[in-house]
Structures are given as C-alpha cells and as structure tokens.
Design brief:
12% helix, 14 helices, disordered N terminus, 22-stranded antiparallel beta barrel, elongated, mainly beta, five-stranded mixed β-sheet
Length: 1011
C-alpha cells in the first residue's frame, strides 16, 4: 500500500508539472508577443513616419511544400468551407469530416463501448492510423499510442476551411500520410472581438449540446504583427439508447429476440445453477452433458438502456497565435493551444463472463438440489458407463466442510457466468489534457525565394478511471466458503449468493466484490524541428513563361509514448474489462530530407494552355528506441502532371509511393488476451437462446474442436461466444517494418465558358498498400483452420478453447481464443471515383449556389495474410470483419439561396445500400420477420438512406448573425440490424450510429457577434 501511495504521489507531481508546462508554454507565446509589441512601440516612436514595412505573405497550400499559390496543383483536394461548418453547427471536427463522401466514420461520440475518449478521422476506410492531421500545414502532437490526433482538440471557431487530400502524401508530410492528410487552416490576421455561441437539442429534448467561444485579435506596431486569442467551452449531454424505441432492447441479430423481454428465455442444458434474470448467468461443469437442466429459465440481460447514442463530453480550450515582423524580410510566428477534455462512458454492469472458478460444495448458498446435481455429474460421459463426480455420501459430508483442509471438503471446477444486475453500470471517466506549442521564423531572400524554420513540442496525457467492476479474485475467494464464511477472510471476504435469482446478491455482498477504482494513464509526446527553402530556380523551360519552382527541406521528429496502469489494471482482475491493461513504453525518431519541383513545361501553346510537371522525393531514416535498436530507411516519391489543352478543360494525374512506419502501440504493446467480435463459432452447436443449431461438429471438425481444448463431452453443447465477443491473443511486434503504398489519381476539371460559374471535377483514385501492418479479422483466423480442418495443423492448434465448455469465451488466463498476431503480411486496396459539381447563378435578386460532392467506391479489400487469408471485400457490406460502413455510393448536395440578409441552405445526404457480408456470399442469414413495436425488419439488408438538413442564416446587422438549423428534417429512423452484426466500436444500439442518425431530428441555434 505504501508503495502504491508513493507512486500515486509521484504521478500527481508529474501531472502537476505537465499541466504547468502546458500553461507556461501558452503564456510564453502570448507574453512573447506582448513584449515584442512593447519594444516595437518604443522603437517606432523614434522612427520616422515613412518607415517601410514589408508584407510577408503566409501561404498554406495543402499537398505541397512550395509556397507559390499561383502554381497549378496536380492532386485533388476536397475543401470544407466555413459556411459548411456554420450551416452544420457541428461542435467536433470529426462529425464534419465523416459526412464527406468517401470518408468512413472512425471512433467518435456515437458509440461508448470501445470509445477511448478520442475522436479520429479515417480517410478512404484504410484506417485512422494511416492519415495525418495538420494545422496550417504543420503536424500537431498525437493523442495516443497509435499516433492519431484527437480531433476534439481542434479549435472550431478559428478554422477558416478544412482541406482533405487523399492518396499518398508521405513525400510532402512524411510517414503516416499513406491515405492522405486533413489540414485545418485557421483564419489569418484576425482583428476585433468575436463571440460564437451554439445550442442544440434533439426532438425529444435530450442530447443537448452547447458551445461558447470568445476570440480576440489585434494588430501590433502599426500592422507589423498580429496576435489572436481564443477561449472556448463545449458540453454535450448523453442520449441513452433506452430513450429510443429502436434502441430500448438489445436485439439478437439471428432470431430478432429481445434481451430481457422474456421473449428470449430458454431452458439451458449447460448445468446452470439458478441463473434467472442474469446475462449468461450460469455455472458450467467441464464436459457438458445432454439433458441435464439445473435451472428453469434464463432471460438474457438487456444492456442497451445503459449505453448511449451520444457520449457525454466536456471541453475547455485555449488557442493563441501571432506573427511579428522583425525586419522587412524576417517574420516570427508562434502558435499554442491547450485543451482539457472530459469524456464519460458507461456500459452494462460488470460480472463474470465465463471465468474459471472453484466452488466449495459447502458453500452456504448452494441448495441441496444444486449440490446433488454437481455431485451427480458424469465424470466421463463418453465412456459408456455412468460414474458420478462424488458419491452421495461424499456429497452429503462435503456440505459440512469448514475449510479446504477439512477431510470432508469437496469442490468442483466450473465456469461462472453471472452479471452484476444488482449493481450499477461500469463507468470509465476519461480526463485528457493536451497542449501543442509552435514557434518559427520565415522570410524572403528576394521576391521569389522564401525560407521557413520552425520547432514545436506537444504532449497529451489522458487518465482513465474505471469504476463499477467486480474483482475476479474476490468472486473466486467468495465461492470457496462454508458454514462459517469464506475460507480466506483476509480482505473481509463474505460469501456471495451467485446461485439465486436476480436480487439475490445483497448490497453488502456487492460492495465486497467491487474493487474500487482503477487508473490507466496514457501519455504521448512529439517534438519536431523542420526547415525549408522554396522559390524559383531561375530556369524556365523553352516553351514556358514561368520559371521552375522548387522546395528543399529537412525535418526531425521524436515520438515518445507510454501507458502506465496501476496494479489493479495490470492484474487483469477486473471482471468484464476485456483483459489486462499492461504498462507500455517506447519511442522512435526520424530524420528526413525532402525536395519538390513544380515545372511549367508548356504555356500558351496551341495544344496546351498549360502543361505542368510536379515531382517530389523524401528520404527518411528511423530509429526505434529498443534494446535491439531496429533501424530502417524509406524513400518516397511522387510524380504529377497537369494539362490544360483549352481554357475549359484541365486533365490531371499523380502517382505516389508512400510509406507508414509502425507506431508505438504496434511496436511495444505486450502480448495479452483481450476481446474481439465474433457471433458464430464453427464448434458451437447452441445459439444464443440455448437451442441446438443443427450444426453439431462431427468427424474431423469434431477432432479439431477437441484438439483446441474442448472437452469431448462438450461436443454438441458448445455455446456461441458470450455477447458476441470471443477471446483473442495479440499485441505489438518489434520486428515490424514500414508498410508501402502505391497510389495514383487521374482526373478532369471542366469549366465550360458556355455555362458561366459551372465547375465539374471527376477524379479516379487507386490506393494499394503492401506489407500492411495488420492483424487478421476473426473470420480470417477461423477460416485458416476450418476451411481445411486438420487437428494437427498449426492454424488449428493456435486456437485455444475453454477446457470447461469448449467455447472461445472465458477466463483470459486459460482461454487464449483466436490468434490475431500483428505482422507485415497484409495488403489493402481501394479505388473509386470522386466527383464534384459547383454552380452558382443569380435568379432575380436571389443568388443560388449549388454544390454536389460525391463518391463511388469500386472496392475496398483487406487481406490479413497475402495469398493465404480471404481477400475480403467490404464496400457495401457490413459484418464484424468489416468494422465501419463504407457504402458503394454516397453524396452531399447543398443548395444555398441568398437574398439580402437571408441565406437558406438545404443539404441532401445520400448513403448507398448495404448487405450483410455472409448473406451476400450465401453462407449465413440474419433475422427477417416481424418485430414487436418495430414492424417488419430484415437484418440482412440496409436500404439506401437519404437525410435532409435545413439551415437559415439571418444577418441581423453587419456584426450580428443568427443561424438556425434542423438536421434530419424528416426524422428518418436508423436501420435496425441487431447487436451481433458488426464490431462493438461501430455496431451499437442495434444499428451503426456513427453512419446513420440514431438520435433523430435535431434543432440548433448559432449566434455570432463581432466587434
């Protein structure tokens, strides 16, 4: 205890120092500009009035190191404008990005089970760890060990636009930009005071959101500099799944039954001991026997009402930035941001979900009938003759044993499946602090040559406090008890009635089982230094008028990350926590050199108004901080061509070689057993209602199940994974190398002179990732064995089952489950077409602006082991293997009508149809039929969905505007597919709430006042 308290004190001092450094960093940014201003004013007083002030232009061009904004770019960039953000009234950047066609929802606020308190972006569905988040063209510090940036920290009030560049961008921005970058571009040279206030609520009055931001900016020293400060507060209230009729009950994806409604009750054949009212609440003896029923009924627990469609969130943020012109050719700039976020997640109560336990037959809560049932268990049901576990005399005597050393002591080894329905939910409070500080100098050597040098440091610290969990050690100790109480009473142990119906566990008993709070602290630091020189080479191609432009530069980045878990979190003792949370520590550094060229080849010729070549090269050297000191080098490059034969048409194309280095989590996470999503086990013969499926394993499949650890007597009665989750074993791998990607685009820009104000773009993209750092999907691990079952094969023997009931659920110390090892053996491939149509026209006094942005995804395949695993297609398909929804086609169509002080904008969002993966390939089918209160449902298909949003903006005065909006105007309900169809992080509340609106019609009001 003393050691724990000492460690806690040290951690407290560390957090205090950390927070102090964040606040100090922001203060230095602001004070530095304040001091410069004072000095400048004193100096200016002595100057003549005609002092020359040079204007150094800051240029942010996404996708290039070359600053010249007039140069033609070859790579397509999607832009989210400030108006789009205002009309949407979204408080978190992730919710803006997920609606862009072609983007795939990542972890966000709509799912709380699997949400670690962060929000990420996932470009093209290639993984949220394969893109880079930028602020004004520079990296900001990641927020977790996977190297991803938490979008909750982005200051929405100061964002002027969002640029999204997909495809390999490693040449420009380094590793991780394998699927592209998202660049948040802030307002420049802001002056005055601006107050933004947002308020939103659902049609039911829940899920209230609030955001208030105050922004102040001022020029310094007669326009030589500018400083801006923005402070904000944001809060989102929960929307509980139980408050929507389609989320009130957890629906079984296979039979449509409602958990906890009485419709899913069944007589168990698993040696249950009075589990009525609990979720999988039973005790299971090894070698389950047919026709042995210890309980009359079983009602699955309904966990939906305790889950949410909108996670509670609270944020305080500060952002400051400034520039100051030191001389007529040198400018200093700096930026700092700090945020403190609180995210509260809660899930259904804790318990024991198949943990191996030993039960004393003198346990005071065992009835005589239950004790006799245990004793009469057939020790070898396959032997042909009945041999009970204990004789009746031994069984009767065992009831009197007062200790494990008592001669009459007898026990049984079994599984405990009992949820803490008498207690409250499991709660995780995530508290995160984040800061990132950047300083730099930039200047002009002459009119065509520019330089830029910057350094930044950022850090994130998140502490997760977990509450409401039973301790496995305590329920195991409680089960070993007799007439005089627990055999071991060292920690105040008392016997607990696990054998009775709902309500049998008293508050006193529950208080003993609960282990208090556990803490996990994750910290990530990134420091970087980079410099670049760009400008004109002075060389002009013979058929061109403008010179060739170039950029060269160098960069150094250092990443350090750690996860510090208290002893309770490390122990794996938390019931229902999904495994232990080990300590993790590691880091790596990279040194890079890069160059770019933008060369006008032909200009104003008969066959080409413009023909421009773009090229880039980056060399990177990585060093991993480990005893073996892994090192590797990578080279990335790009080529692009832009051809405008006539003024109305431009053709563009790019080819890029990109890389992604393994991140800290992929390198340094220890091997542990955790939970993954799996609804169907080839060895299981009972469905989730305890009924035989008819797929009782026989022949070689039966032999494989036994070779994996299933008792022979359990064959025919192995249950499906508990709650659709199976154990798996995996972790990091220090032998990982960078993955590589080839991506290319080919597109056209059409601006016909016969139709003024019309622009049409069409771009084909193709991204293929080789040597991908991946883990197999659960279906891949099973297919590797059961597609060609062999009880002696490595693929089959790598799966480890429960020695009690043969399932893939249970005690992670015993049931290792599926082998999901991390390796460079995978590949991913996606291609499709992006298209946009922009048109504006005046209709009398009304200005009409129309924008159609769409995506057609041809394919998005994932193969965990190249040439061996299934090359799984996920476009238009949903399952536990495909994670988030990626439709075949999607579009946004916004029409805005402006008249004097009014703007009326309508957005039409279209999401293409989806099909359950196994139903599409003819191997499995989900529920189809009538549901009580919900009507007819077919869980195998999701029809195309259309949402309409309406926004009205009124400019009251030049300085005051009010915007009101209605999202999901027609209150379209989400598709219902049950809770087994996808991964826990995306399939929640019987639907996919990150893709489809599970909250319903929402109303928002925004007021903006400037001074």
């Amino acid at each position: 205890m003393a050691q724990t308290e000492k460690t806690g004190a040290a951690n407290g001092r560390l957090r205090a120092a950390y927070l102090g450094s964040a606040a100090t960093g922001l203060a230095l940014v602001a004070m530095g500009f304040g001091a410069t201003n004072a000095y400048a004013q004193d100096k200016d007083a002595a100057k003549k009035a005609d002092t020359k002030t040079m204007q150094i232009e800051e240029v942010v061009v996404t996708g290039s190191l070359i600053r010249n904004p007039n140069l033609v770019r070859t790579a397509p960039v999607s832009v989210v404008s400030k108006d789009d953000m205002t009309f949407k009234q979204t408080n978190v950047a992730e919710e803006i990005l997920r609606d862009i066609p072609g983007m795939v929802p990542s972890i966000g606020a709509q799912v709380n089970n699997g949400n670690g308190g962060f929000s990420f972006v996932n470009l093209r569905g290639l993984g949220s760890n394969r893109n880079v988040t930028l602020l004004d063209g520079n990296r900001v510090a990641p927020s977790e060990l996977g190297g991803r940036v938490d979008l909750n920290n982005i200051p929405i009030a100061l964002i002027d636009r969002i640029d999204v560049l997909t495809g390999g961008a490693s040449t420009t921005y380094g590793a991780d930009a394998i699927s592209g970058v998202v660049n948040f571009v802030t307002k420049k040279h802001f002056t005055g005071v601006q107050v933004d206030a947002n308020y939103g609520t659902s049609f039911k009055g829940d899920g209230t959101t609030k955001r208030v931001e105050l922004t102040m900016g001022s020029d310094l020293a007669d326009g030589k500099g500018n400083i801006v400060l923005s402070v904000g507060y944001q809060k989102s209230d929960p929307v509980y799944q139980g408050d929507r009729d389609y989320g009130a009950y957890a629906l079984d994806s296979y039979d449509g039954s409602r958990a906890g409604s009485g419709l899913g009750s069944y007589n168990s054949r698993f040696g249950n001991v009075n589990p009525t009212g609990t979720d999988n609440g039973n005790l299971v003896l090894g070698g389950v026997q047919p026709d042995r029923t210890f309980a009359a009924a079983y009602t699955p627990f309904n966990f939906n009402p305790l889950n949410v469609y909108q996670t509670p969130f609270q944020r305080y943020n500060i952002y400051t930035a400034g520039t100051y012109q030191i001389t007529d050719k040198i400018e200093m700039y700096a930026r700092g941001m700090f945020s403190k976020n609180t995210v509260n997640t809660l899930i259904a109560p804790s318990g024991s979900f198949g943990d191996t336990v030993q039960v004393s037959l003198s346990n005071p809560y065992l009835s005589t009938a239950q004790r006799n049932a245990f004793c009469a268990f057939d020790t070898d049901p396959t032997a042909g003759s009945y041999v009970p576990l204990y004789t009746q005399a031994e069984c009767d005597a065992a009831a009197t044993a007062t200790s494990a050393s008592d001669p009459n002591f007898r026990s049984v080894t079994t599984q405990l499946r009992r949820r803490d329905v008498e207690g409250g939910p499991r709660v995780s409070d995530f508290g995160a602090t984040y800061f990132d500080v950047e300083v730099g100098l930039r200047g002009d050597i002459d009119e065509s040559m520019h330089w830029d040098v910057m350094a930044s440091y950022g850090a994130s610290e998140q502490t997760q406090v977990q509450k409401g969990y039973w301790l496995k050690s305590r329920f195991r100790k409680s089960l070993m008890s007799g007439p005089n109480g627990c055999f071991d009473q060292s920690d105040g142990c008392i016997p607990v009635d696990f054998f009775g119906p709902t309500g049998s566990i008293t508050p006193e008993q529950n208080a003993y089982l609960l282990g208090g709070e556990s803490n996990i602290t994750t910290r990530f630091d990134m420091g970087q230094v980079k410099g670049s020189l760009s400008g004109e080479t002075g060389f002009t191609m013979p058929w061109a008028e403008n010179a060739v432009n170039f950029a060269i530069g160098g960069e150094y980045r250092k990443y350090t990350g750690s996860q510090a878990s208290d002893l309770l979190s490390q122990s794996g003792d938390l019931g229902g926590a999904g495994g232990a949370s080990p300590n993790i520590s590691g880091g790596y550094s990279v040194i890079e050199g890069m160059m770019e060229l933008n060369a006008p080849i032909v200009e104003n010729a008969d066959f080409a108004k413009s023909l421009t070549l773009e090229a880039g090269l980056r060399y990177s050297s990585y060093k991993v901080d480990a005893d073996s000191s892994p090192k590797y080098q990578t080279t990335t490059w790009k080529l692009g061509l832009n051809w405008t034969p006539v003024d109305d048409v431009t053709f563009r194309g790019t080819f890029a070689r990109a890389v992604r280095a393994p991140n800290i989590a992929e390198l340094f996470t220890p091997q542990i057993t955790q939970l993954t999503n799996l609804a169907t086990d080839p060895c299981a013969s009972l469905d989730d209602s305890g009924n035989p499926t008819g797929n009782i394993p026989t022949g070689v499949v039966r032999d494989v199940c036994i070779a994996q650890g299933a008792p022979a007597g359990a064959i025919g009665f192995i249950p499906q994974p508990a709650a659709g989750q199976a154990n798996f074993t995996g972790g990091g791998n220090l032998n990982l190398k960078p993955e590589t990607s080839n991506s290319w685009t080919l597109g056209m820009i059409l601006q016909p002179s016969v139709v003024p104000n019309l622009t049409v773009t069409v771009d084909y993209y193709n991204i293929k990732i080789d040597q991908a750092i991946t883990t197999p999907a659960p279906g891949d691990a099973l297919a590797a064995c059961f597609d060609n079952p062999d009880p002696t094969s490595a693929a089959c023997l790598a799966i480890v089952r429960s020695p009690i009931d043969g399932s893939l659920s249970g005690d992670e110390a015993v049931v290792k489950g599926l082998p999901l090892a991390l390796s460079n053996a995978g590949n991913l491939h996606t291609d499709g077409i992006d298209f946009t149509v922009n048109y504006s026209h005046d209709i009398g006094d009304v200005h009409w602006n129309s924008t159609l942005t769409g995506n057609w995804t041809h394919r998005s395949t994932f193969q965990a082991v190249t040439g061996v695993s299934v090359n799984r297609e996920c476009v238009g398909l949903y399952s536990a293997n495909c994670a988030s929804i990626q439709p075949k086609i999607s579009w946004n169509f916004r029409n805005t009508f402006s008249l004097e002080k009014f703007d009326v904008s309508v957005l039409w969002r279209h999401i293409g149809k989806e099909t359950y993966e196994d139903f599409a390939n003819g191997t499995d089918q989900l529920f189809e039929g009538q549901l009580q209160d919900l009507g007819y449902a077919n869980f195998n298909k999701i029809k195309a969905y259309d949402y309409f949003d309406l926004s009205v903006r009124y400019n009251v005065t030049e300085n005051v505007s009010v915007t009101a909006n209605v999202l999901n105007v027609f209150n379209r309900r989400p598709p219902i597919v049950g809770f087994y169809t996808g991964t826990t992080a995306f399939n929640s509340g019987n639907t996919f709430p990150s893709t489809y609106d599970a909250i319903g019609r929402r109303f928002g009001l925004n007021a903006k006042v400037t001074f």
